[in-house]
Amino acid sequence: xxITAQQVKELREATGVGMMDCKKALTETGGxxxxxxxxxxxxxxxxxxxxxxxxxxxxxxxxxxxGKQGAIVEVNSETDFVARNEQFQGIVANIAKLAxxxxxxxxxxxxxxxxxxxxxxxxxxxxxxATIGENMTLRRSSVIKVADGVVGSYVHNSVKxxxxxxxxxxxxxxxxxxxxLSGLGKQLAMHIANTKPLSVSxxxxxxxxxxxxxxxxxxxxxGSGKPAEIVAKMVEGRIRKYYEEVTLLAQTFVIDGETKVxxxxxAAEKDxxxxxxxxxxxxxxxxEGIEKAESDFAAEVAATVGA
Length: 307
What we know:
Layout: H1 5-15, H2 19-28, H3 33-42, E1 58-66, E2 69-77, H4 80-83, H5 86-102, H6 106-111, H7 121-132, E3 136-145, E4 149-156, E5 163-164, E6 166-173, H8 178-195, H9 207-222, H10 228-246, H11 261-272, E7 277-285, H12 295-305
Antiparallel strand pairs: 1-2, 1-5, 2-3, 4-6, 6-7
Helix pairs in contact: 1-2, 1-12, 2-3, 5-7, 8-11, 9-10
């Protein structure tokens, strides 16, 4: 099959590998993007793929927390200029508050009544488009609730309280001291913003992702020429290290650079006076997964691969 310049461009952005190697990987895998990433990784040419579409759209991530519940939303705009507009900031803040009622369903959220206008959220955005003069979209929303405990949060690159370019909410279930829980929640949310884990623990990690990693490690280890039982141990060692990299509780706490997050939570239990369970977290990076056209670079890739 013919490999397009756009495919090569996407693979290059996802892996950081040179264009010719990307073209070869796509050719070898029939244009399958995930398989091409794995092909590059098994040959030591790429580490784990970067998240797709790292070119960020503009807008704001908004967070609203209230005791045992919290919501996070992303509202996109065309330019950062609009993200600094007070009217737009007010809209995002209000949408974040409404998001709890919608339970994380962005379609339901769009149809909720926007306060003081008689319009729905989507109609309010349409009205703002007419007055501000730039397209805006309500992209996504998530909610975390706990039976008892707190929902902590953190916003990076904050332009106003609860509004910024990156946001995290985290649920801590506990009957313990709420002030201790709130402090821990903020610290863990800051950690998540820095390390971006995939799950709380290996138990809730996507098993398809684990199987894919295991297959890559197995192929790499098999090329060592070592006996099968040694290869198996090598693979399990790599999997344990992978868990330490991508699961929250197994990671090293960024604030002290030494303690495992699981031990940080355990230590906080003494101050809180009760067990603490991390029930989940949500991390939104503004524009993650959205890609803007970059015609000049695409032309460069096209010239390189002869597309």
